[in-house]
Design a protein that fits this description.
By secondary structure, the chain is an alpha/beta fold. It contains five helices and eleven strands. It has a single domain, classed as Rossmann fold, CATH 3.40.50.300. Strands 5-4-6-7-3-8-9-10-11 form a nine-stranded mixed β-sheet. It has a two-stranded antiparallel sheet with strand order 1-2. It binds adenosine-5'-triphosphate (ATP) and magnesium ion.
C-alpha cells in the first residue's frame, strides 16, 4: 500500500510511514490544539514534493493561514485556497487533480449532510487525493467529531486533546482509527514550537 508522508515529525512512525494514499482522515480536537498547524504541515510536505495541494477554509482568511505558515518558516506560496460550500464541491472539484486537500473545518460549515460529506470523500478519492478533514471536538464529547458522523465515514481518525494533570498541561495525540494500518491505541505527547507540530513520545504510564 502506497503511503503518503505527513512530514509531521514523530507522527508517520505511528502509522507505518504515513496515511495510505487516497485516504480521508478526520483530525478532531478542541480549540487551539494545533489542528490547523498539523494540516498545514501535511500540505507543506506535498508542496515540497511538487504536489498540487489545496486548503478549503471557512474560518480563517487565506492571508492568516499564510502568515501562520511563515511563522514556522514554511513556504506555502503554491498552496491553493478554495472557498467552496458543500453543495459546490462536486462541480468545483470535477476534472481537478489535487494530491492533498485539507478542509478546515467541518464544524464551521453550517450544514454538512451525510450526503455531501460522502460525495466529497468519493470525489477526492476518485482524483487520487489524500485528504484531512478537520473537526472541532467539544471537550467532554463521547463522540469523535462534532457532527458525530464523520468518524464513521472517514478512513482514519486522529484525536488531539489538551489535558491537565497535577497542574501540568499535556497535549495528547491518539490515532483512534486507521484502516489498513497497524496502530497502537496509545496517547502520544506532542508539542507546538517555533518549528511547528511535533509528536514526542508515548505518554509515560
Ligand atoms: N510558535 C509557536 N510556539 C508555540 N506554540 C504556538 C506557536 N504558534 C502557535 N502556537 C500555538 O498553536 C495553537 C494554535 O494552533 P492551531 O491554530 O493549529 O489550533 P487549532 O486547533 O486549529 O485551533 P482552532 O480550533 O481555533 O482552529 C495555539 O494554542 C498557539 O498557542
Ligand atoms: Mg484551526
Amino acid at each position: 500500500m502506497e503511503r503518503v508522508a505527513t512530514g509531521v515529525p514523530g507522527f508517520d512512525g505511528l502509522i507505518e510511514g504515513g496515511f495510505p494514499k487516497n485516504f480521508t482522515i478526520l483530525l478532531s480536537g478542541s480549540p487551539g490544539t494545533g489542528k490547523t498547524i498539523f494540516g498545514l504541515r501535511f500540505l507543506k510536505e506535498g508542496l515540497d514534493n511538487g504536489e498540487k495541494c489545496a486548503y478549503i477554509t471557512y474560518s480563517q482568511a487565506p492571508k492568516d493561514i499564510q502568515d501562520q505558515a511563515s511563522e514556522f518558516g514554511w513556504d506555502m506560496s503554491r498552496l491553493e485556497f478554495l472557498e467552496l460550500r458543500p453543495e459546490e464541491f462536486e462541480e468545483a472539484l470535477a476534472g481537478k487533480h489535487y494530491n492533498r486537500i485539507v478542509l478546515d473545518s467541518l464544524s464551521s460549515i453550517a450544514v454538512m449532510t451525510r450526503d455531501s460529506l460522502g460525495r466529497f470523500i468519493m470525489k477526492t478519492k476518485e482524483m487520487g487525493c489524500t485528504s484531512v478533514l478537520i473537526s472541532e471536538l467539544p471537550k467532554e464529547s463521547v463522540w469523535l467529531s462534532r457532527d458525530t458522523i464523520s468518524e464513521f465515514l472517514t478512513d482514519g481518525v486522529i484525536i488531539l486533546k489538551s489535558v491537565e494533570a497535577a497542574g501540568e498541561v499535556k497535549n495528547l495525540l491518539k490515532v483512534e482509527k486507521m484502516r489498513s494500518t497497524k496502530i497502537e491505541k496509545k496517547s502520544n505527547i506532542y508539542s507546538i514550537t517555533d518549528k511547528g507540530f511535533e509528536v514526542k513520545s508515548y505518554l509515560a504510564r
